[in-house]
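Any chance you'd type out a single protein's sequence alongside its tokenized fold?
>
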Amino acid sequence: MRHALSIEPTPTSLPRAADPAAPYLEITDLWKAYGDFVALRDISLSIARGEFICFLGPSGCGKTTLLRAVAGLDLQSQGTILQGGRNISTLPASSRDYGIVFQSYALFPNLTIEQNIAFGLENTGRSKAAVASRVSELLETVGLSAHGKKYPAQLSGGQQQRIALARAIAISPGLLLLDEPLSALDAKVRVHLRHEIKALQRKLGVTTIMVTHDQEEALAMADRIVVMNHGIIEQVGSPTEIYRYPETLFVADFIGETNQFPARVVRGGEVEIGHSAFCCATDGFAAGQAATAVVRPVDIIPHGAHAHAVNAIDRPATPQNLIDAEVREMEFLGMFWRTRLTAPRLGERTLVADFSVNAVRRLSIETGGVIQVEIPRERLLLYPRSA
């Protein structure tokens, strides 16, 4: 069986001559097994110099295991990892070029903030004056210059995480690894700090990998997102690509909210949901094939109660996939209203739609009312469904 794996000895070659077009970090055919359990399965990934990458997925998907393999904290069972052209596959963690920030901060409670940041610098051969200068520079970079003499317990969670970040970048590593660095913080601090981390990463230009299970965090911070599930990579892409064009039903369901309906392909460009036909892209599907139709609540467009009756001068063509719906519930979420609709054309299934505050006011949408909504053809996505 292929998952009965063992460490393959791989020579740790010297760095190749730098190629500006080459990936900075290259992972090839990487597997990780614990006995019969395969945690990572045939992972291959290329990361460019200066990119901010998020490993995103549910608990147990393998994202932290992959980060630990890159860090050398838990060697892979098979596969190679190149960093800047250097084969680091079997190097111990101490011989790799990275800084790491953990969820728990991992600061030394008996050392001052200055001493915590200086800890990794003191073994680099720098003079005391050079170390002090670098510590002062880093404290200013993370906005905590006035706190150098304090101890970790005297700082808030957000401040401690900034100190952990300063310590990680103190030796100017080629790679910065962030293991769920914001998950222990409250929501407001988390939002503030993610902007700070992203701004700092752009300023330093350091290649960064962050592990998170928070989709909003990944969408806000990453240049590219690696969505993982059950030890494999489901999709790699920009936040826009991942959200707007999910390649699998898992990605569509995991990233953001979705409505999902059993569907059947009627013919090219048309599917049946409930007892009605809807227009959508059906490339790769055969007539009669079972599918799952997906549309996000935010993509549903409200048209009021009489969209079909609008004068042709005002609306040259009737919107496609226009349905009558009754508003059953409305939930105010600050930036928008989340509504739950029922529609005969959908077979009385509940349709969740997110409407802006302005749209609700303009169209007088209210609980118990009847409106017409449009499911845009290009936003109705199809995925294979087993019989």
